Amino acid sequence: MMKSEFIERTGFEPTEAEYREIEAEYMGCDIDKDEFCKTWKKQGGIQRLMRLRARRIEELEAELVKEKNDHDRMDAQYCEKINRLNDEKNSELNILKHDNEVLKSNQKRIADQLVKESERANEAERKLAVLKEAFAIITGKEAE
């Protein structure tokens, strides 16, 4: 018997999986398709499949709720982790900004110190030149 014939005789449209079971049941008996369909309906075949469908729907709904709960839990965990990583990144960024400011300050201090030391060196060279000149005058020797 074809699925379309079963539907026509019973007024019930089974899923493919349901029809495979119905067909196996039909093949296991020795009555014609009309008698099988009439007996199947009388023995509560439609009600039985509807209960199975209802049970399957309940199972799927429970599975969906579980999956949603798992998703929500994982989402919360990942949000927590992302927030923690962002906090760590921001903390490290603040440390780097502070370190950068310290380096800039040190660089300016060293540059200022270099200018002062250069001025002192120039002043010392000027004084040395004056001393050499004075020494040359005093000793009568030319400065080399």
Annotation keywords:
single chain; 144 residues; mainly alpha; 4 helices; rod-shaped
Question: Which secondary structure elements does this structure contain, and how are they paired or packed?
Answer:
Elements: H1 3-10, H2 16-27, H3 33-42, H4 45-139
Walk me through this protein's architecture.
3% of the residues are buried. The termini are far apart. The chain has helices at residues 3-10, 16-27, 33-42, 45-139. It is mainly α. It is built from four helices and no strands.
Q: Provide mean pLDDT, rounded.
A: 94
Strand content: under 5%
- Counted beta strands: 0
Question: How many strands, which pairing sense, and closed or not: the largest β-sheet?
Answer: none
Q: How far is it from the N-terminal to the C-terminal residue, by CA? A: 126 Å
Classify the secondary structure makeup into a structural class.
Answer: mainly alpha
Helix percent band:
over 70%
Outline the low-pLDDT stretches.
Answer: none
Shape: rod-shaped
How would you spell out the order of helices and strands? HHHH
**For the CA atoms, what is the radius of gyration?**
49 Å
Number of helices: 4
